[in-house]
Amino acid sequence: MTARIDPQAIKEKLTTETLGRSVVFREETASTNADAKALGRQGAPHGTLVLCARQTAGRGRRGRSWLSDEGALCMTLLLRPPFPPELAPRYIVACALGVCRALRACGASARIKWPNDILANGRKLCGILLEADASGFVAAGIGVNVNQRDFPADIAGTAGSLLTATGRAHDPNDVIARILAECEPLFAACGDEAGYAALLESYQALSLTIGRRVRIFAPGEEYDAKAVGLDPLGMLIVQRDGGETRVVGAGDVTIRGAIGN
Over the chain, what is the mean pLDDT? Predict the structure, then answer.
């Protein structure tokens, strides 16, 4: 029998200064992001961690649903950036890199599919959704497939878990503590130009997207291009076949010749 999420066990494993030091756990909730945003508007501190055993109405990017079954991990971090709000998109890069590093530390050959999906062996292990609130905080939602063996038919060909990627079950409390430990210094680096430049380099080194042919599904158009890098806010820079360079900040990106999209 695999371990269950246990807030006390998480606190005992923490090595962070602020992330996860305040934990809100619910057996079932509609959305940990919605809960975190409500707490943020009530003044909850930076680093507050919202967790649930079962999520019934979670959302991924572009309004897609993100539901949790037994073995899945759904969590949201409340972040209060100590830098200008226009730099908040940097948290997307930091969060994806931190989670990727944590899953690699668990034994998965994890890589980042821009902007914020984590894949291993061509299968999606994790999705991340960051939502900024007008009052100045950010809700960073993280969904990780930890111990699932089977998936619904519509995603069975593309989804994976830490269990399937590594061949063994994982304690979700260990996974949570690893994610928080990896993310904390990266979030801090987002306000420092040199630190963030190093963060971007590390992200690109673990990217499945940079250097690959991609198909861009942008509002009102579709086109093929090569992903060549990231801009200072983590938006994808692509070069079309005619040489035109574009910055992609919205839409879907499919990696040509890759599975797990």
Answer: 91
